[in-house]
Amino acid sequence: RKEVEQDPGPFNVPEGATVAFNCTYSNSASQSFFWYRQDCRKEPKLLMSVYSSGNEDGRFTAQLNRASQYISLLIRDSKLSDSATYLCVVNRNYGGSQGNLIFGKGTKLSVKP
Amino acid sequence: DAGITQSPRHKVTETGTPVTLRCHQTENHRYMYWYRQDPGHGLRLIHYSYGVKDTDKGEVSDGYSVSRSKTEDFLLTLESATSSQTSVYFCAIGTDTQYFGPGTRLTVL
Q1: Strands, E, within chain B: which ranges?
Q2: Do A98 and B100 touch (CB under 8 A)?
Q3: CA-CA distance, A20 to A11, in Å (whole number)?
Q4: Contact A104/B58, CB-based, under 8 Å?
Q5: In chain B, which residues have their Cβ closer than 8 Å to the Cβ of A44?
């Protein structure tokens, strides 16, 4: 299994749709999980951290399933401005050393009018 | 937004020439990172720093060196640029959660 794997998409959805992205990771010792958003030709920006109990931020809901090593992001009521690439990010957790984030290749979302 | 700037933002150079990219932060953060991003790959760590003069290699460090003489500046040097180093380079700061600079688009002809 790849360290972090995402469906590359693209996901083409109409405005107002609900869309879900999935991500799997291989290192069962990973402790930190994130979703980043990256607009075309821009830097990645933190969208939200993912907690074991699941967490919600407005229209965005993130879930973590440690047993299945699976992370998800749900976007409700999609807006045109949600069009971007969504990166799943996991830490390697090698002895607590820093710099050990692993980035998925990203899932591209395109929201159409 | 985290106070991170990168310079230059765009650069075109020729194979074999040295290139230095600069990352500057105003957050006084201890940890800084250099990544490259290429089509078909996720962001890949080149080098990182955990303090002034303290650096370590990432997963794709061959052909790159770094220096950190001040907390706010982290330099990435390509000693002799190759076409395979054509990429977008991002600097980041943070510990578990990382924040990125705007990126430098480097083309090596």
Answers
A1: 4-7, 10-13, 19-25, 32-37, 44-51, 54-57, 64-70, 73-78, 87-94, 98-100, 104-108
A2: no
A3: 9
A4: no
A5: 43, 90, 100
Paired with A21 in beta bridges are A73
Out of B41, B48, B97, whose CB is closest to A105? B41
Q: What is the C-alpha to C-alpha distance for residues B66 and B76, in angstroms, rounded to an integer? A: 5
Rounded to 5 degrees, φ, ψ at B85 are -95, 5
Using the predicted structure, report yes or no on whether residue A94 has a pLDDT greater than 70: no
List, for residues B12-69, the tens digit of each pLDDT value.
999 999 999 999 999 999 999 999 999 988 899 999 999 999 999 998 999 999 999 9
Q: Tokens 């965005």: give the residue.
A: A60
DSSP 3-state of A107: strand
For residue B103, list chain A residues with Cβ-Cβ distance below 8 A. 42-43
Read off the pLDDT of each residue in A48-67 and give the average, rounded to a whole number. Answer: 93
**Each residue's pLDDT tens digit, A61-83:** 999 999 999 999 999 999 999 99
Distance (Å, whole) CA B65 – CA B48: 10
CB < 8 Å to A4, chain B? 42
